Amino acid sequence: MRKFIDLHLIPGDTDLSESMLNEASRLGFTGVGLTQDTRNRDSHDKKPREDSLDIARRIDLRPRNPNELTSSLRRVRRRFEIVAVECRSKPVARQAARDHRVDILNFPTQIQSRRRVRFDRQEASLASGTNCAYEINLSDLLNKGAYVASRLLSMMTVEVENARHYDVPVVVSSGADEPLLMRGPRELAASMQLLGIGEEESLDMVSDVPRELVERNRRKLEPGYVSPGVRRV
Amino acid sequence: MPVYRKRRRYLKFWIRGNEDFSVKEVADAIQRSVLSLYGVQGLSTIETNLIDFDEDSQSGILRCNHGHLREMRASLAFITSIGESAAAIHVDKVSGTIRSLKKGGETA
Protein backbone atom coordinates (compact mmCIF):
# COMPACT_ATOMS: atom_id res chain seq x y z
CA MET A 1 0.00 0.00 0.00
CA ARG A 2 1.26 3.44 -0.92
CA LYS A 3 2.29 5.89 1.76
CA PHE A 4 1.45 9.41 0.73
CA ILE A 5 3.41 12.49 1.70
CA ASP A 6 2.47 16.14 1.21
CA LEU A 7 5.84 17.83 1.32
CA HIS A 8 4.64 21.41 1.40
CA LEU A 9 2.35 22.72 4.11
CA ILE A 10 2.83 26.37 5.07
CA PRO A 11 0.96 27.09 8.30
CA GLY A 12 1.39 30.61 9.57
CA ASP A 13 1.09 29.83 13.29
CA THR A 14 0.98 26.91 15.71
CA ASP A 15 -2.85 26.67 15.90
CA LEU A 16 -3.14 26.54 12.15
CA SER A 17 -0.36 23.99 11.86
CA GLU A 18 -2.15 21.71 14.32
CA SER A 19 -5.39 21.86 12.32
CA MET A 20 -3.50 21.32 9.06
CA LEU A 21 -1.72 18.30 10.50
CA ASN A 22 -5.06 16.84 11.62
CA GLU A 23 -6.49 17.50 8.16
CA ALA A 24 -3.50 15.84 6.49
CA SER A 25 -4.01 12.77 8.60
CA ARG A 26 -7.73 12.70 7.79
CA LEU A 27 -7.02 13.04 4.06
CA GLY A 28 -4.83 9.92 4.15
CA PHE A 29 -1.30 11.28 4.27
CA THR A 30 1.24 9.39 6.37
CA GLY A 31 3.76 12.20 6.29
CA VAL A 32 4.02 15.91 5.69
CA GLY A 33 6.70 18.49 5.13
CA LEU A 34 5.95 21.33 7.50
CA THR A 35 7.43 24.65 6.48
CA GLN A 36 8.90 26.39 9.47
CA ASP A 37 11.08 29.40 9.88
CA THR A 38 14.24 29.35 11.93
CA ARG A 39 12.43 30.71 15.01
CA ASN A 40 9.52 28.26 15.46
CA ARG A 41 11.23 25.17 14.07
CA ASP A 42 10.99 23.14 17.28
CA SER A 43 7.26 23.61 17.86
CA HIS A 44 6.23 20.15 16.52
CA ASP A 45 9.46 18.24 16.83
CA LYS A 46 9.09 16.89 20.33
CA LYS A 47 5.36 16.22 20.45
CA PRO A 48 4.51 12.58 19.61
CA ARG A 49 1.28 12.44 17.58
CA GLU A 50 -1.52 9.93 18.10
CA ASP A 51 -2.06 9.50 14.36
CA SER A 52 1.68 8.75 13.85
CA LEU A 53 1.92 11.36 11.13
CA ASP A 54 5.54 11.70 10.10
CA ILE A 55 6.54 15.37 10.13
CA ALA A 56 9.58 16.53 8.20
CA ARG A 57 11.03 19.95 8.96
CA ARG A 58 11.18 22.10 5.86
CA ILE A 59 12.42 25.57 5.10
CA ASP A 60 11.67 27.67 2.04
CA LEU A 61 14.53 29.97 1.16
CA ARG A 62 13.89 33.11 -0.90
CA PRO A 63 17.36 34.44 -1.61
CA ARG A 64 17.83 37.61 -3.68
CA ASN A 65 21.18 36.57 -5.10
CA PRO A 66 23.48 33.51 -5.25
CA ASN A 67 25.67 34.76 -2.38
CA GLU A 68 22.67 35.07 -0.10
CA LEU A 69 21.62 31.54 -1.09
CA THR A 70 25.04 30.09 -0.24
CA SER A 71 25.18 31.77 3.15
CA SER A 72 21.59 30.72 3.97
CA LEU A 73 22.35 27.13 3.02
CA ARG A 74 25.42 27.10 5.24
CA ARG A 75 23.23 28.28 8.14
CA VAL A 76 20.18 26.03 7.72
CA ARG A 77 21.23 22.80 5.98
CA ARG A 78 21.97 20.79 9.14
CA ARG A 79 18.85 22.05 10.90
CA PHE A 80 16.14 21.12 8.40
CA GLU A 81 15.27 17.85 6.67
CA ILE A 82 14.10 19.56 3.51
CA VAL A 83 15.56 22.71 2.03
CA ALA A 84 13.57 24.30 -0.79
CA VAL A 85 14.58 27.34 -2.78
CA GLU A 86 12.14 29.72 -4.41
CA CYS A 87 14.03 30.84 -7.50
CA ARG A 88 13.24 34.49 -8.07
CA SER A 89 16.03 35.17 -10.54
CA LYS A 90 17.97 33.15 -13.06
CA PRO A 91 21.35 33.39 -11.24
CA VAL A 92 19.68 32.12 -8.04
CA ALA A 93 17.96 29.31 -9.97
CA ARG A 94 21.23 28.22 -11.57
CA GLN A 95 23.14 28.31 -8.27
CA ALA A 96 20.35 26.40 -6.49
CA ALA A 97 20.29 23.69 -9.18
CA ARG A 98 24.08 23.36 -8.92
CA ASP A 99 24.20 23.11 -5.12
CA HIS A 100 23.98 19.62 -3.53
CA ARG A 101 22.49 21.10 -0.37
CA VAL A 102 19.27 22.13 -2.14
CA ASP A 103 16.50 19.50 -2.21
CA ILE A 104 13.66 21.22 -4.02
CA LEU A 105 13.34 23.97 -6.61
CA ASN A 106 10.30 26.23 -6.72
CA PHE A 107 9.46 28.80 -9.35
CA PRO A 108 7.35 31.98 -9.33
CA THR A 109 3.61 31.74 -9.88
CA GLN A 110 3.23 35.11 -11.61
CA ILE A 111 3.28 34.61 -15.36
CA GLN A 112 5.64 37.53 -16.05
CA SER A 113 8.19 36.29 -13.51
CA ARG A 114 7.79 32.69 -14.68
CA ARG A 115 8.67 33.71 -18.23
CA ARG A 116 12.00 35.05 -16.92
CA VAL A 117 12.78 32.26 -14.46
CA ARG A 118 11.59 28.78 -15.26
CA PHE A 119 12.71 25.17 -15.17
CA ASP A 120 14.29 25.16 -18.60
CA ARG A 121 16.59 22.53 -20.11
CA GLN A 122 19.79 24.05 -18.71
CA GLU A 123 18.23 24.21 -15.26
CA ALA A 124 17.03 20.61 -15.58
CA SER A 125 20.47 19.47 -16.71
CA LEU A 126 22.10 21.10 -13.66
CA ALA A 127 19.42 19.76 -11.29
CA SER A 128 19.86 16.20 -12.58
CA GLY A 129 23.52 16.33 -11.54
CA THR A 130 22.67 17.24 -7.95
CA ASN A 131 19.49 15.15 -7.62
CA CYS A 132 17.48 18.26 -6.87
CA ALA A 133 13.71 17.84 -7.25
CA TYR A 134 11.28 20.04 -9.16
CA GLU A 135 8.12 20.79 -7.18
CA ILE A 136 4.60 21.45 -8.39
CA ASN A 137 2.29 23.09 -5.87
CA LEU A 138 -1.41 22.64 -6.60
CA SER A 139 -2.19 25.85 -4.69
CA ASP A 140 -0.36 27.75 -7.45
CA LEU A 141 -3.16 26.74 -9.82
CA LEU A 142 -6.12 27.22 -7.48
CA ASN A 143 -8.03 30.49 -7.21
CA LYS A 144 -6.54 31.71 -10.48
CA GLY A 145 -8.54 33.02 -13.42
CA ALA A 146 -8.92 30.82 -16.48
CA TYR A 147 -6.27 32.71 -18.47
CA VAL A 148 -3.59 32.69 -15.75
CA ALA A 149 -4.27 29.04 -14.89
CA SER A 150 -4.07 28.01 -18.53
CA ARG A 151 -0.76 29.87 -19.05
CA LEU A 152 0.70 28.34 -15.89
CA LEU A 153 -0.46 24.88 -16.95
CA SER A 154 1.21 25.19 -20.33
CA MET A 155 4.46 26.43 -18.75
CA MET A 156 4.40 23.65 -16.17
CA THR A 157 3.78 21.04 -18.88
CA VAL A 158 6.98 22.11 -20.64
CA GLU A 159 8.86 22.14 -17.32
CA VAL A 160 7.68 18.62 -16.47
CA GLU A 161 8.85 17.48 -19.91
CA ASN A 162 12.28 19.00 -19.18
CA ALA A 163 12.39 17.26 -15.80
CA ARG A 164 11.50 13.90 -17.37
CA HIS A 165 14.07 14.36 -20.14
CA TYR A 166 16.88 14.81 -17.60
CA ASP A 167 15.53 12.34 -15.00
CA VAL A 168 14.89 15.05 -12.44
CA PRO A 169 12.52 13.84 -9.72
CA VAL A 170 9.18 15.67 -9.67
CA VAL A 171 7.29 16.18 -6.41
CA VAL A 172 3.62 17.15 -6.22
CA SER A 173 2.51 19.01 -3.10
CA SER A 174 -0.48 21.04 -2.04
CA GLY A 175 1.50 24.16 -1.05
CA ALA A 176 -1.44 24.97 1.24
CA ASP A 177 -1.30 27.76 3.79
CA GLU A 178 -4.76 26.94 5.20
CA PRO A 179 -6.78 23.72 5.61
CA LEU A 180 -9.23 24.70 2.85
CA LEU A 181 -6.43 24.59 0.28
CA MET A 182 -5.36 21.08 1.23
CA ARG A 183 -6.29 18.23 -1.10
CA GLY A 184 -6.20 14.45 -0.75
CA PRO A 185 -3.25 12.52 -2.24
CA ARG A 186 -5.24 10.96 -5.06
CA GLU A 187 -6.76 14.34 -5.93
CA LEU A 188 -3.26 15.86 -6.10
CA ALA A 189 -2.17 13.01 -8.35
CA ALA A 190 -5.29 13.24 -10.53
CA SER A 191 -4.67 16.95 -11.09
CA MET A 192 -1.37 16.05 -12.75
CA GLN A 193 -3.39 14.66 -15.63
CA LEU A 194 -3.71 18.30 -16.73
CA LEU A 195 0.07 18.30 -17.23
CA GLY A 196 0.02 15.10 -19.26
CA ILE A 197 1.32 12.87 -16.47
CA GLY A 198 0.07 9.29 -16.25
CA GLU A 199 -1.69 7.76 -13.26
CA GLU A 200 1.12 5.64 -11.77
CA GLU A 201 3.77 8.30 -12.35
CA SER A 202 1.66 10.98 -10.68
CA LEU A 203 0.93 8.71 -7.70
CA ASP A 204 4.71 8.18 -7.34
CA MET A 205 5.12 11.97 -7.23
CA VAL A 206 2.96 12.11 -4.08
CA SER A 207 4.37 8.98 -2.46
CA ASP A 208 7.67 7.35 -3.44
CA VAL A 209 9.54 10.43 -4.69
CA PRO A 210 8.96 12.59 -1.58
CA ARG A 211 9.52 9.59 0.72
CA GLU A 212 12.90 8.83 -0.83
CA LEU A 213 13.85 12.50 -0.57
CA VAL A 214 13.02 12.65 3.14
CA GLU A 215 14.70 9.30 3.91
CA ARG A 216 17.86 10.30 2.05
CA ASN A 217 18.10 13.57 3.94
CA ARG A 218 17.45 11.91 7.29
CA ARG A 219 20.33 9.53 6.62
CA LYS A 220 22.51 12.54 5.83
CA LEU A 221 21.55 14.23 9.09
CA GLU A 222 22.43 11.16 11.18
CA PRO A 223 25.64 11.45 13.20
CA GLY A 224 28.59 9.79 11.49
CA TYR A 225 27.41 10.49 7.94
CA VAL A 226 30.30 11.59 5.70
CA SER A 227 29.09 11.17 2.11
CA PRO A 228 26.86 8.73 0.18
CA GLY A 229 28.08 5.22 1.13
CA VAL A 230 30.59 6.49 3.70
CA ARG A 231 29.88 6.54 7.45
CA ARG A 232 32.17 7.21 10.38
CA VAL A 233 31.93 4.24 12.80
CA MET B 1 -28.13 -10.26 -27.73
CA PRO B 2 -25.44 -8.50 -25.65
CA VAL B 3 -26.47 -5.12 -24.30
CA TYR B 4 -23.89 -2.42 -23.68
CA ARG B 5 -24.03 -1.31 -20.08
CA LYS B 6 -22.26 1.86 -19.07
CA ARG B 7 -19.76 1.35 -16.27
CA ARG B 8 -19.82 3.93 -13.50
CA ARG B 9 -17.75 4.95 -10.54
CA TYR B 10 -19.38 6.24 -7.39
CA LEU B 11 -17.49 8.65 -5.17
CA LYS B 12 -18.38 9.26 -1.55
CA PHE B 13 -17.31 12.79 -0.66
CA TRP B 14 -17.42 15.27 2.18
CA ILE B 15 -17.21 19.03 2.19
CA ARG B 16 -15.01 21.22 4.32
CA GLY B 17 -16.21 24.78 4.48
CA ASN B 18 -17.06 27.63 6.78
CA GLU B 19 -20.82 27.18 6.30
CA ASP B 20 -23.37 24.57 5.22
CA PHE B 21 -24.29 24.22 1.57
CA SER B 22 -27.45 23.14 -0.23
CA VAL B 23 -27.72 20.34 -2.80
CA LYS B 24 -28.12 22.86 -5.60
CA GLU B 25 -25.03 24.85 -4.60
CA VAL B 26 -22.92 21.69 -4.44
CA ALA B 27 -24.20 20.37 -7.79
CA ASP B 28 -23.55 23.78 -9.41
CA ALA B 29 -20.02 23.99 -8.01
CA ILE B 30 -19.13 20.50 -9.30
CA GLN B 31 -20.59 21.18 -12.73
CA ARG B 32 -18.83 24.56 -12.98
CA SER B 33 -15.48 23.02 -12.07
CA VAL B 34 -15.79 20.25 -14.68
CA LEU B 35 -16.85 22.83 -17.27
CA SER B 36 -13.97 25.19 -16.55
CA LEU B 37 -11.37 22.41 -16.67
CA TYR B 38 -12.67 20.18 -19.46
CA GLY B 39 -15.38 22.16 -21.25
CA VAL B 40 -18.74 21.01 -22.53
CA GLN B 41 -17.31 17.91 -24.20
CA GLY B 42 -15.61 16.92 -20.94
CA LEU B 43 -18.84 17.41 -19.04
CA SER B 44 -20.61 15.06 -21.43
CA THR B 45 -17.92 12.35 -21.34
CA ILE B 46 -17.28 12.48 -17.59
CA GLU B 47 -21.05 12.17 -17.06
CA THR B 48 -20.95 13.69 -13.63
CA ASN B 49 -24.12 13.35 -11.57
CA LEU B 50 -24.79 14.17 -7.94
CA ILE B 51 -26.68 11.11 -6.68
CA ASP B 52 -27.15 12.00 -3.06
CA PHE B 53 -26.23 14.80 -0.69
CA ASP B 54 -26.91 15.05 3.00
CA GLU B 55 -27.07 18.69 4.06
CA ASP B 56 -26.67 17.79 7.74
CA SER B 57 -23.42 15.88 7.41
CA GLN B 58 -22.34 17.83 4.31
CA SER B 59 -21.42 14.61 2.56
CA GLY B 60 -22.76 12.85 -0.47
CA ILE B 61 -22.35 10.47 -3.36
CA LEU B 62 -21.33 11.46 -6.84
CA ARG B 63 -21.38 9.38 -10.01
CA CYS B 64 -19.08 9.56 -13.01
CA ASN B 65 -18.04 7.47 -16.00
CA HIS B 66 -15.57 4.80 -14.84
CA GLY B 67 -13.02 5.74 -17.50
CA HIS B 68 -12.94 9.36 -16.37
CA LEU B 69 -12.40 9.00 -12.65
CA ARG B 70 -9.16 10.99 -12.74
CA GLU B 71 -10.87 13.89 -14.50
CA MET B 72 -13.60 13.80 -11.88
CA ARG B 73 -11.08 13.84 -9.05
CA ALA B 74 -9.13 16.67 -10.68
CA SER B 75 -12.32 18.70 -11.09
CA LEU B 76 -13.17 18.21 -7.42
CA ALA B 77 -9.63 19.24 -6.43
CA PHE B 78 -10.02 22.54 -8.31
CA ILE B 79 -13.15 23.55 -6.39
CA THR B 80 -12.20 26.34 -3.99
CA SER B 81 -15.62 27.82 -3.34
CA ILE B 82 -19.24 26.74 -3.26
CA GLY B 83 -21.75 29.52 -3.76
CA GLU B 84 -20.03 32.57 -2.35
CA SER B 85 -18.14 30.82 0.40
CA ALA B 86 -14.72 29.15 0.43
CA ALA B 87 -14.87 25.35 0.54
CA ALA B 88 -13.12 22.16 -0.49
CA ILE B 89 -14.52 18.80 -1.57
CA HIS B 90 -12.65 15.69 -0.45
CA VAL B 91 -13.20 12.18 -1.77
CA ASP B 92 -13.64 9.60 0.95
CA LYS B 93 -14.18 6.37 -0.99
CA VAL B 94 -14.63 5.19 -4.55
CA SER B 95 -16.60 2.15 -5.65
CA GLY B 96 -18.28 0.54 -8.63
CA THR B 97 -21.66 0.25 -6.92
CA ILE B 98 -23.54 2.37 -4.44
CA ARG B 99 -24.18 -0.66 -2.26
CA SER B 100 -20.50 -1.49 -1.80
CA LEU B 101 -19.74 2.19 -1.30
CA LYS B 102 -22.12 2.26 1.63
CA LYS B 103 -20.67 -1.00 2.98
CA GLY B 104 -17.05 0.03 2.80
CA GLY B 105 -15.68 0.14 -0.71
CA GLU B 106 -12.23 1.03 -1.94
CA THR B 107 -10.44 3.64 0.13
CA ALA B 108 -9.77 6.92 -1.65
What would you say this structure looks like, in words?
The complex is a heterodimer of chains A (233) and B (108). Chain A has one domain: TIM Barrel. Helix content of chain A is 42%, strand content 18%. Chain A is built from 9 helices and 9 strands. Chain A has helices at 14-27, 66-76, 90-98, 111-116, 121-130, 146-165, 185-191, 199-206, 208-221; strands at 4-9, 29-35, 54-61, 82-86, 104-106, 133-137, 170-173, 225-227, 230-231. In chain A, strands 1-2-3-4-5-6-7 form a 7-stranded parallel β-sheet, sandwiched between helices. Chain A has a two-stranded antiparallel sheet with strand order 8-9. In chain A, helix 6 (146-165) links the parallel strand 6 (133-137) and strand 7 (170-173). Chain B has one domain (8-107): Ribonuclease P, Pop5 subunit (Alpha-Beta Plaits, 2-Layer Sandwich). Chain B has helices at 23-46, 69-77, 98-103, and strands at residues 8-17, 49-54, 59-65, 81-82, 85-95, 106-107. The model of chain B has no long low-confidence stretch (mean pLDDT 91). The N and C termini of chain B lie far apart (36 Å). Chain B is an alpha+beta fold and 108 residues long. In chain B, strand 4 and strand 5 form a beta hairpin. Classes of the chains: A alpha/beta (233), B alpha+beta (108).
